Amino acid sequence: MGTTATQPSLWDRSRQAVVASIFDTAMRLFAEQGYEATTIAQIAKEAGISQRSLFRYFGTKEDIVCGEQEELGELLRATVEAQPAAATAWEALRAGFEVLMEAHGEPGKLLEITTLIFDTPPLRARYTQKRLRWQELVQPAVTARMPAGEGPLPQVRAAAVTATVFACVDAATEAWVRSGGSADLATLYDEALAAVRG
Amino acid sequence: MGTTATQPSLWDRSRQAVVASIFDTAMRLFAEQGYEATTIAQIAKEAGISQRSLFRYFGTKEDIVCGEQEELGELLRATVEAQPAAATAWEALRAGFEVLMEAHGEPGKLLEITTLIFDTPPLRARYTQKRLRWQELVQPAVTARMPAGEGPLPQVRAAAVTATVFACVDAATEAWVRSGGSADLATLYDEALAAVRG
DNA sequence: TGCCCGCTTGGCAGTGACTGCCAAGCGGGC
DNA sequence: GCCCGCTTGGCAGTCACTGCCAAGCGGGCA
To answer: What residue stretches are annotated with the HTH tetR-type domain (chains A, B) (predicted)?
Structure first.
């Protein structure tokens, strides 16, 4: 639970193996038949596990795809808060996203997941919902970096800046997915933010 | 279907009456017991209609709350496109939202709906999903108002501007809801956008 | 007036995601 | 070899949602 990286116990690793096995099976089936057409029963059977246990690893069908966002949120928060005090809110958030982009394993797999999410409305809705959680997580750090406001408005200002950065990340990610992964995400993000703040 | 306002036929109005009756029943029950604890069966029974018919009026439980967004999207698109050519993308979008704010009936009812949406994660996810549809609708009009770009990037720039405006509307709306409706939405929006573009 | 046609409605049975409950297995400590 | 805790699997149930079909209702037309 804490920030200290408790090294993975044997138990953790076997759990991770099961999770990975379910995930791979599911992604294969999603690619073959589409997300909606694939049932939990089928994933469970092909992964050699009971339906009941599958739900113990992934609370929902959507979480099989969007699940790892949970941990990443904590990494984002920590990174943003660790930025030097001189950094503006914009710079701190950008640094956070740079770390996130490097935190993913193979970029190929990330592209596959992201494409699936952006092409499947319910998945995208879930994804957005989780990103909203991220916004709440970084909000304090962003508020602390805002120029001191006058009224009860600094809250709104901080929320607006945070939401804008996420919106630009979203726009950049969408363009990245539509380019089939050939474009550079960081460049797209900078372009997006420039269009907004220019 | 067209833009011409075909005046409501008798049939339309009886349909509207049923819709309103279901909606009112549902909102009352949601307020009394919460959204998740209220079942479709209960809403149908109290509204004096069969479950099957309820689903013919509202495709999903979420749409009972988020349903009217569908038509409003068209209004938004038309308004943005109708802005003078000299208006910037920012101004055109702002004008669109001003019209939307006036399009709602009683502000009290709007506050009730919006509060429910913002307090209920699945509803907010659905709401965001529909707003994404709005973004797609206005995208062409926004692209047309962007300063001519160099590469394949004007798409990203337009998407970023659009997404940012929606993000600011969201931040403003959230603050408005949290204030219990006492704050002024337009003022909050201007404050939010100023924080971003300042 | 009586019939017919189209549309709306309601019931029914089914699917698919998800949950609670309980019994069986399995591993490690003693 | 035994016991204890945790994980697993199966079962039955709930809830949102869908397709199908049969019944009702209203309006047009002879």
So the answer is: 16-76
